[in-house]
Amino acid sequence: MQGIRPPILNGPMHPRPLVALLDGRDCTVEMPILKDVATVAFCDAQSTQEIHEKVLNEAVAALLYHTITLSRDDLEKFKGLRVIVRIGSGFDNVDVKAAAELGIAVCNVPAASVEETADTSLCLILNLYRRVTWMHQALREGTRASSVEQIREVAGGAARIRGETLGIIGLGRVGQAVALRAKAFGFSVIFYDPYLPDGVERSLGLQRMATLQDLLIHSDCVSLHCSLNEHNHHLINDFTIKQMRQGAFLVNSSRGGLVDEKALAQALKEGRIRGAALDVHETEPFSFSTGPLKDAPNLICTPHTAWYSEQASVEAREEAAREVRRAITGRIPDSLKNCVNKEYLMAASQWPSMEAATVHPELNGATYRFPPGLINVATAGGLPGTGTGVDSLVTGTLAHGIAPVTH
Amino acid sequence: WSMALMDKHKQVKRQRLDRICEGIRPPILNGPMHPRPLVALLDGRDCTVEMPILKDVATVAFCDAQSTQEIHEKVLNEAVAALLYHTITLSRDDLEKFKGLRVIVRIGSGFDNVDVKAAAELGIAVCNVPAASVEETADTSLCLILNLYRRVTWMHQALREGTRASSVEQIREVAGGAARIRGETLGIIGLGRVGQAVALRAKAFGFSVIFYDPYLPDGVERSLGLQRMATLQDLLIHSDCVSLHCSLNEHNHHLINDFTIKQMRQGAFLVNSSRGGLVDEKALAQALKEGRIRGAALDVHETEPFSFSTGPLKDAPNLICTPHTAWYSEQASVEAREEAAREVRRAITGRIPDSLKNCVNKEYLMAASQWPSMEAATVHPELNGATYRFPPGLINVATAGGLPGTGTGVDSLVTGTLAHGIAPCFQPELPLFFLFFVVLSFQ
Question: Which PROSITE patterns match (chain B) (predicted)?
């Protein structure tokens, strides 16, 4: 209930709350920002099965990348979680609705990799049009092009860009950055985005298409820049591919789940799609030797790296750590900067009636949760065994717990 | 100087002397009374694009040669126009083998493979086609730059070789070196058509763009909003990524060499889609191995065709190479060939160099045509009164309306073996002072 969901316990009278990095091992960037208000642990897990029980019981905040999934069942394993922060922009790997129902705010970091992703998307598009990646590969394999006829052959398929139409699906931060770069090359840029308010197309001088089909029909190259949600899984499938132009290009630096790879492979083999460049895949890590794409021609693939630069990585991690800090030292969700499930949290907190009978009996009078498996009782000023522990990486085995508040 | 020239090339030059005199250099013989002049594609086999434009005014042949040694004697003797790509070189010695050449048209923009000065001295105009591949080359250059910064080509290659990146730490490792672009400085050497197109594209990514171009007049930098550097060294010092967009000439061979590489920033990138001769590959290889240059992307090389397994770059790391394909798209290729054929047509049906649209050695031609004095004594005795050449090895005499053996030949590709020759025009010997009248009557 609004108002009875308490802030995370912190301050000199309480033990430091536990913050856990779920699917990584390196907390060096996060530590300086969090060490005075939290204990930071890393799990290096690929699923919640691999997360230590202590973390499941005691973590109040979780940091994660895109390589672990948190379904409703996964979320229910956590007993004290109040906030989840995605170190990155996409949060489709977290069931944000279920999290809200469990009183857990979910946040992301939407800004750090916008330009890196846009730059890589343009690199993928240009590699499809100018064929640099494939020709470099051919040279590595020993191809020699002596005469101009041989040059034309090895470069065959390289196309003029001016006058081509680039269709952007999803004109968010990355989509807009891609649109503006593409204009510089002479692309006609059109987009489809059912969530964007009227007028953004006027700001940037782009043409808006009313339906996905309209966009697919008019595009020579389609680039996906929308997040993955319950409505757009396999957005690019056998049916929609057939609405695309014969010989169109497809680029995906967003989420693998948007594309039905079986349908894409078939279209590539038949030449209905002339080439595809994918940074993300239905199953990651991607391998050319397995999966539906393994025999598909005219493919360029990278291993979910469009977002990466040293600077973007550090920026995202620092911002995520700061969001966790805001959660710990402030109020949830009011103090959060990038909470993505605020509406669901507010809705979940509204009781249909305030009658005691409708309140879960175990909750009656208890405004704080009692984490099961309570281990230690807090001592004033600190926890036994912490010492200088907070300055170093804490391993999966925790030595302290979070004290409950008795009522 | 004409005497010195004759002394130097005496045996070969007799047929050329008419060209050295301004005004007595005749237009290419053409028209219903003359056989069609011979146009030869030197280093290719496909003339299908050129044919429709030239067939009514010329005979088109292809040589498919990699050097002038491979060119048939008939072509050397009779071609008045030559078309060529970048894969054959025409040095002074090569040019002297041609007996009737009046115009050379490069199907493309770079003409460093032709000695344009020597050509002018021999009365041969050299033209190029500067516009067709400007955007293709700029787009490919940006693709090369982005592949260095975002590492798509190398990561695709790693995936092909079986690398798997499961965790974010592994992703950071396989992508290690991928850098943020905004705030980086791109230094463009040569702000011509391609350099300008690259500059404007690069700005969209957040590059700070600077350039060095010693030939460009003041003010172009203001038009495009770029920063101009006064010296090459200034540019190299301030650039995170250096991209070459200048043509190759006698002054800039190995522009990028051991010394200038050391003026570049530690860990800078280098991109070359211009000419291989601008870069000393031995020095580049060393810099790549030592990491002084973080990565290089090259569409052109000192020796082409390029191979990763030979040459100074064969063990160099962090290389992206393509086989001189930056210019190519189907449309650009056809446009360039059509424009080249039209330039040949202008040469044949009009005046050289006045009718030419993209003559690159006009100044040299004009200079070469000025006689220091008009005294008869300075004119080579054999030239006296002879305004037209007599090609050696005369075969056929022209018949009105066409040549024997041509038939429908001009509509099909003519092979290296020619079936017909170009007939000479018979001229009695005339005193020099009659030359002007002769010239006027033939205009």
Answer: D_2_HYDROXYACID_DH_1, D_2_HYDROXYACID_DH_3
Nearest CA in chain B to A184: B201
Cβ atoms of A277 and A303 closer than 8 Å: no
DSSP B302-369: SSSS--TTSSTTTT-SSEEE-SS-TT--HHHHHHHHHHHHHHHHHHHHS-TTTT-SSBS-HHHHHHHT
CB contact under 8 A, A145 and B43: no
Query: Exposure string (b/e) for B324-340, b if CB count within 10 Å is 16 or more?
Result: bbbbbbeebbebbbbbb
pLDDT single digits (tens) A323-353:
999 999 999 999 999 999 999 998 887 654 4
The mean-pLDDT minimum among A94-98, A147-151, A189-193, A365-369 falls in A365-369
> What CA–CA distances, in Å, run from A263 to A268, A272, A274, B350?
9, 11, 14, 58
Q: What is the DSSP string of B134-163?
A: HHHHHHHHHHHHHHHHH-HHHHHHHHHTT-
Nearest to A174 by CA among A260, A112, A264, A218: A112
- Cβ–Cβ below 8 Å for A132 and B164: no
CB contacts, 8 Å: B155 with chain A: 302-303, 305
| For helices A173-184 and A114-130, angle between their N-to-C axes, nearest 10 degrees | 40
Assign a CATH topology to domain A18-112+310-350: Rossmann fold (3.40.50)
Options 3.40.50.2000, 3.30.1300.10, 3.10.129.10, 3.40.50.720; CATH of B134-326: 3.40.50.720
- Torsion A317-A319-B154-B151 (CA) sign: negative
For chain B, the domains span: 38-132+333-369, 134-326
CB contact under 8 A, B150 and A123: yes
In terms of Cα–Cα distance, which of A22, A26, A46, A21 is closest to A285?
A46
Q: Which fold has domain B38-132+333-369?
A: Rossmann fold (3.40.50)
ipTM, 2 dp? 0.86
Phi and psi, residue A294, nearest 5°: -65, -25
pLDDT of residue A195: 96
